[in-house]
Amino acid sequence: MHLIVTKDSDEIANLLSKIVIGLVNQKSNAVLGLATGSSPIATYKLLIEDHQTNKTDWSNVSTFNLDEYVGLQQENHNSYHYFMEEQLFKHLNIKKANIHIPNGLGDVKQNATEYEKLISEHQQIDFQILGIGSNGHIGFNEPGSDVKSVTRVVELSKETIQANKRFFASSQDTVPTQAITMGIATILKAKNIVLIATGKNKAEAVKALVQGKVSEKWPCSYLQNHPSVLILADQAAASLLEQKS
Ligand code: GLP
Predict the structure, then answer these.
(1) Is 122 a residue of the active site?
(2) Which of 5, 113, 221, 243 could form a disulfide with 238 if both were Cys (CB 3.0 to 4.6 A apart)?
(3) Which stretches does DSSP call E strand in 7-144?
(4) What is the tens place of the pLDDT at every residue in 52-106?
(5) How far, in Å, CA of 199 to CA of 72, rounded?
(6) If DSSP codes are grouped into helix, strand and coil, which group holds residue 121?
(7) How far apart are CA 200 and CA 241, in angstroms?
Protein backbone atom coordinates (compact mmCIF):
# COMPACT_ATOMS: atom_id res chain seq x y z
CA MET A 1 0.00 0.00 0.00
CA HIS A 2 1.38 3.41 -1.00
CA LEU A 3 0.22 6.63 0.55
CA ILE A 4 0.60 10.14 -0.85
CA VAL A 5 -0.50 13.00 1.37
CA THR A 6 -1.34 16.03 -0.74
CA LYS A 7 -1.79 19.62 0.32
CA ASP A 8 -5.40 19.72 -0.92
CA SER A 9 -8.09 18.06 -3.00
CA ASP A 10 -6.98 19.82 -6.22
CA GLU A 11 -3.65 18.08 -6.00
CA ILE A 12 -5.45 14.74 -5.70
CA ALA A 13 -7.51 15.49 -8.81
CA ASN A 14 -4.36 16.49 -10.70
CA LEU A 15 -2.50 13.33 -9.78
CA LEU A 16 -5.41 10.97 -10.33
CA SER A 17 -6.47 12.45 -13.66
CA LYS A 18 -2.88 12.17 -14.92
CA ILE A 19 -2.77 8.48 -13.97
CA VAL A 20 -6.10 7.76 -15.71
CA ILE A 21 -5.17 9.72 -18.85
CA GLY A 22 -1.80 7.95 -18.96
CA LEU A 23 -3.53 4.57 -18.74
CA VAL A 24 -6.12 5.37 -21.43
CA ASN A 25 -3.39 6.64 -23.77
CA GLN A 26 -1.25 3.60 -23.19
CA LYS A 27 -4.06 1.01 -23.29
CA SER A 28 -6.90 2.06 -25.54
CA ASN A 29 -9.21 -0.71 -24.26
CA ALA A 30 -8.52 -0.05 -20.59
CA VAL A 31 -11.18 -1.14 -18.09
CA LEU A 32 -11.90 1.37 -15.36
CA GLY A 33 -13.81 0.89 -12.13
CA LEU A 34 -15.53 4.15 -11.26
CA ALA A 35 -16.92 5.77 -8.12
CA THR A 36 -19.52 8.42 -7.35
CA GLY A 37 -19.80 10.85 -4.44
CA SER A 38 -18.23 14.29 -4.22
CA SER A 39 -14.62 13.04 -4.03
CA PRO A 40 -14.05 12.12 -7.72
CA ILE A 41 -15.91 15.09 -9.27
CA ALA A 42 -12.80 17.31 -9.63
CA THR A 43 -10.92 14.42 -11.24
CA TYR A 44 -13.75 13.81 -13.71
CA LYS A 45 -13.68 17.52 -14.63
CA LEU A 46 -9.99 17.24 -15.50
CA LEU A 47 -10.64 14.11 -17.59
CA ILE A 48 -13.27 16.05 -19.53
CA GLU A 49 -10.95 19.05 -20.02
CA ASP A 50 -8.22 16.73 -21.25
CA HIS A 51 -10.58 15.03 -23.69
CA GLN A 52 -11.66 18.40 -25.07
CA THR A 53 -8.12 19.78 -25.32
CA ASN A 54 -5.99 16.75 -26.15
CA LYS A 55 -8.62 14.50 -27.74
CA THR A 56 -7.78 11.54 -25.53
CA ASP A 57 -9.75 8.69 -27.09
CA TRP A 58 -12.28 6.91 -24.88
CA SER A 59 -13.98 4.97 -27.66
CA ASN A 60 -12.57 1.59 -26.61
CA VAL A 61 -12.51 2.15 -22.86
CA SER A 62 -15.01 0.23 -20.72
CA THR A 63 -16.21 1.16 -17.27
CA PHE A 64 -17.85 -0.56 -14.32
CA ASN A 65 -19.39 1.56 -11.60
CA LEU A 66 -19.23 0.44 -8.02
CA ASP A 67 -22.80 0.91 -6.96
CA GLU A 68 -26.32 2.26 -7.46
CA TYR A 69 -29.25 3.04 -5.18
CA VAL A 70 -32.22 0.67 -5.20
CA GLY A 71 -35.49 2.19 -6.42
CA LEU A 72 -34.38 5.35 -8.24
CA GLN A 73 -35.19 5.78 -11.93
CA GLN A 74 -32.07 6.34 -14.04
CA GLU A 75 -33.25 9.87 -14.89
CA ASN A 76 -33.64 10.73 -11.21
CA HIS A 77 -31.03 13.39 -10.41
CA ASN A 78 -29.92 11.45 -7.35
CA SER A 79 -29.30 8.17 -9.16
CA TYR A 80 -25.71 7.21 -9.86
CA HIS A 81 -26.68 6.62 -13.51
CA TYR A 82 -27.57 10.31 -13.74
CA PHE A 83 -24.50 11.38 -11.77
CA MET A 84 -22.12 9.52 -14.07
CA GLU A 85 -23.82 10.71 -17.25
CA GLU A 86 -23.67 14.36 -16.12
CA GLN A 87 -20.29 14.39 -14.39
CA LEU A 88 -18.41 12.34 -16.97
CA PHE A 89 -19.85 10.16 -19.69
CA LYS A 90 -21.81 12.66 -21.80
CA HIS A 91 -18.65 14.75 -22.19
CA LEU A 92 -16.47 11.90 -23.52
CA ASN A 93 -16.55 9.77 -26.67
CA ILE A 94 -17.16 6.63 -24.63
CA LYS A 95 -19.59 4.08 -26.15
CA LYS A 96 -22.84 3.51 -24.24
CA ALA A 97 -22.38 -0.24 -24.69
CA ASN A 98 -19.08 -0.03 -22.79
CA ILE A 99 -20.61 1.66 -19.73
CA HIS A 100 -21.78 -0.61 -16.91
CA ILE A 101 -23.67 0.50 -13.80
CA PRO A 102 -25.72 -1.80 -11.55
CA ASN A 103 -29.46 -1.67 -12.24
CA GLY A 104 -31.32 -0.66 -9.07
CA LEU A 105 -34.79 -1.28 -10.53
CA GLY A 106 -36.86 -4.45 -10.95
CA ASP A 107 -35.48 -7.74 -9.65
CA VAL A 108 -32.49 -6.21 -7.90
CA LYS A 109 -31.18 -9.50 -6.48
CA GLN A 110 -31.04 -10.95 -9.96
CA ASN A 111 -29.48 -7.71 -11.29
CA ALA A 112 -26.73 -7.95 -8.68
CA THR A 113 -25.97 -11.56 -9.64
CA GLU A 114 -25.85 -10.63 -13.31
CA TYR A 115 -23.58 -7.65 -12.65
CA GLU A 116 -21.09 -9.85 -10.80
CA LYS A 117 -21.16 -12.33 -13.71
CA LEU A 118 -20.61 -9.53 -16.21
CA ILE A 119 -17.54 -8.32 -14.31
CA SER A 120 -16.08 -11.79 -13.94
CA GLU A 121 -16.59 -12.64 -17.62
CA HIS A 122 -15.10 -9.34 -18.76
CA GLN A 123 -11.43 -8.55 -19.05
CA GLN A 124 -10.02 -7.65 -15.58
CA ILE A 125 -10.58 -4.12 -14.25
CA ASP A 126 -7.23 -2.36 -14.78
CA PHE A 127 -7.80 0.52 -12.45
CA GLN A 128 -10.42 0.86 -9.74
CA ILE A 129 -11.15 4.31 -8.30
CA LEU A 130 -12.62 4.35 -4.78
CA GLY A 131 -13.87 7.01 -2.42
CA ILE A 132 -14.38 6.21 1.24
CA GLY A 133 -17.27 6.71 3.67
CA SER A 134 -16.59 8.28 7.05
CA ASN A 135 -17.52 4.86 8.53
CA GLY A 136 -14.92 3.18 6.30
CA HIS A 137 -17.30 1.89 3.62
CA ILE A 138 -16.00 1.34 0.10
CA GLY A 139 -18.61 1.25 -2.64
CA PHE A 140 -21.58 0.61 -0.38
CA ASN A 141 -19.84 -2.14 1.59
CA GLU A 142 -20.83 -1.04 5.05
CA PRO A 143 -19.18 -2.13 8.32
CA GLY A 144 -19.82 -5.85 8.79
CA SER A 145 -19.24 -6.66 5.09
CA ASP A 146 -17.44 -9.93 4.50
CA VAL A 147 -14.10 -10.07 2.71
CA LYS A 148 -15.60 -12.71 0.37
CA SER A 149 -18.68 -10.61 -0.47
CA VAL A 150 -19.60 -10.14 -4.14
CA THR A 151 -22.05 -7.81 -5.88
CA ARG A 152 -25.26 -7.83 -3.89
CA VAL A 153 -28.15 -5.83 -2.45
CA VAL A 154 -27.22 -4.14 0.84
CA GLU A 155 -28.93 -2.10 3.54
CA LEU A 156 -27.36 1.32 3.99
CA SER A 157 -26.22 2.26 7.48
CA LYS A 158 -27.81 5.19 9.34
CA GLU A 159 -24.51 7.03 9.08
CA THR A 160 -24.38 6.66 5.29
CA ILE A 161 -28.01 7.73 4.87
CA GLN A 162 -27.25 10.77 7.01
CA ALA A 163 -24.04 11.59 5.09
CA ASN A 164 -25.73 11.29 1.68
CA LYS A 165 -28.75 13.41 2.66
CA ARG A 166 -26.95 16.50 1.40
CA PHE A 167 -27.31 15.30 -2.20
CA PHE A 168 -31.07 14.89 -1.76
CA ALA A 169 -31.61 18.28 -0.12
CA SER A 170 -33.22 19.92 -3.15
CA SER A 171 -35.50 17.03 -4.14
CA GLN A 172 -38.65 15.43 -2.76
CA ASP A 173 -36.89 12.07 -2.45
CA THR A 174 -35.48 10.66 0.72
CA VAL A 175 -32.22 8.72 0.61
CA PRO A 176 -32.96 5.10 -0.41
CA THR A 177 -32.26 2.58 2.33
CA GLN A 178 -30.83 -0.05 -0.01
CA ALA A 179 -28.27 -0.18 -2.80
CA ILE A 180 -26.54 -2.64 -5.10
CA THR A 181 -22.80 -2.64 -4.60
CA MET A 182 -19.81 -4.53 -5.91
CA GLY A 183 -18.60 -6.67 -3.02
CA ILE A 184 -15.24 -6.56 -1.27
CA ALA A 185 -14.05 -9.62 -3.22
CA THR A 186 -15.22 -7.99 -6.47
CA ILE A 187 -13.26 -4.82 -5.71
CA LEU A 188 -10.14 -6.74 -4.68
CA LYS A 189 -10.06 -8.48 -8.10
CA ALA A 190 -9.00 -5.23 -9.81
CA LYS A 191 -5.39 -5.06 -10.97
CA ASN A 192 -4.72 -1.63 -9.41
CA ILE A 193 -6.76 0.35 -6.91
CA VAL A 194 -6.59 4.01 -5.96
CA LEU A 195 -8.58 5.38 -3.03
CA ILE A 196 -9.09 9.10 -2.61
CA ALA A 197 -9.98 10.77 0.67
CA THR A 198 -10.41 14.42 1.50
CA GLY A 199 -11.46 16.30 4.61
CA LYS A 200 -11.32 15.85 8.34
CA ASN A 201 -14.47 13.67 8.43
CA LYS A 202 -12.53 10.92 6.61
CA ALA A 203 -9.54 10.99 9.00
CA GLU A 204 -10.68 8.15 11.26
CA ALA A 205 -11.49 5.93 8.27
CA VAL A 206 -8.11 6.71 6.67
CA LYS A 207 -6.36 5.76 9.91
CA ALA A 208 -8.24 2.43 9.97
CA LEU A 209 -7.40 1.90 6.30
CA VAL A 210 -3.68 2.53 6.60
CA GLN A 211 -2.75 1.68 10.18
CA GLY A 212 -5.69 -0.30 11.60
CA LYS A 213 -6.09 -4.05 11.99
CA VAL A 214 -7.83 -5.71 9.02
CA SER A 215 -11.39 -6.05 10.24
CA GLU A 216 -14.97 -6.11 9.00
CA LYS A 217 -15.59 -3.13 11.29
CA TRP A 218 -13.68 -1.01 8.80
CA PRO A 219 -14.29 -2.47 5.31
CA CYS A 220 -11.62 -0.13 3.87
CA SER A 221 -8.99 -2.06 5.88
CA TYR A 222 -9.44 -5.08 3.55
CA LEU A 223 -7.47 -3.10 0.97
CA GLN A 224 -4.34 -3.86 3.00
CA ASN A 225 -4.51 -7.35 1.46
CA HIS A 226 -4.32 -6.08 -2.11
CA PRO A 227 -0.93 -5.96 -3.90
CA SER A 228 -1.39 -2.61 -5.66
CA VAL A 229 -3.20 0.09 -3.71
CA LEU A 230 -2.46 3.79 -3.79
CA ILE A 231 -4.07 6.10 -1.23
CA LEU A 232 -4.33 9.78 -2.12
CA ALA A 233 -5.32 11.71 0.99
CA ASP A 234 -5.24 15.42 1.67
CA GLN A 235 -3.70 16.71 4.89
CA ALA A 236 -7.02 16.83 6.74
CA ALA A 237 -7.91 13.23 5.83
CA ALA A 238 -4.40 12.10 6.81
CA SER A 239 -4.35 14.09 10.05
CA LEU A 240 -4.84 11.13 12.42
CA LEU A 241 -2.07 8.99 10.90
CA GLU A 242 0.90 8.27 13.09
CA GLN A 243 4.21 9.38 11.68
CA LYS A 244 5.49 5.85 10.85
CA SER A 245 3.64 5.93 7.51
C1 GLP B 1 -21.06 7.10 -1.20
C2 GLP B 1 -20.59 6.11 -2.30
C3 GLP B 1 -19.15 5.73 -2.10
C4 GLP B 1 -18.35 6.98 -1.85
C5 GLP B 1 -18.71 7.56 -0.52
C6 GLP B 1 -18.01 8.86 -0.19
O7 GLP B 1 -21.92 6.57 -0.26
N8 GLP B 1 -21.37 4.94 -2.42
O9 GLP B 1 -18.69 5.02 -3.25
O10 GLP B 1 -16.99 6.66 -1.83
O11 GLP B 1 -20.10 7.69 -0.37
O12 GLP B 1 -18.64 9.95 -0.76
P13 GLP B 1 -18.06 11.41 -0.80
O14 GLP B 1 -16.95 11.39 -1.79
O15 GLP B 1 -19.19 12.25 -1.26
O16 GLP B 1 -17.59 11.74 0.57
Answers:
(1) no
(2) 5
(3) 31-34, 62-65, 67-69, 99-100, 127-130
(4) 999 999 999 999 999 999 999 999 999 999 999 999 999 999 999 999 999 999 9
(5) 28
(6) helix
(7) 12
107 in active site: no
The β-bridge partners of 232 are: 4, 196
Residue 75 is a catalytic residue: no
Centre of ligand 1 to C-alpha 134, Å, is 9
108-157 pLDDT, tens digit each: 999 999 999 999 999 999 999 999 999 999 999 999 999 999 999 999 99
The span from the CA of 105 to the CA of 65, in Å, is: 16
Beta bridge partners of 178: 155
Strand partners, 152: 181
Provide the whole-model pTM: 0.96
Q: How many angstroms is it from 164 CA to the middle of ligand 1?
A: 8
CA–centroid distance, residue 6 to ligand 1 (Å): 19
Fold of 2-234: Rossmann fold (3.40.50)
Helix (H, G, I), strand (E, B) or coil at 118: helix
Which residue among 135, 141, 164, 234 is the active-site one? 135
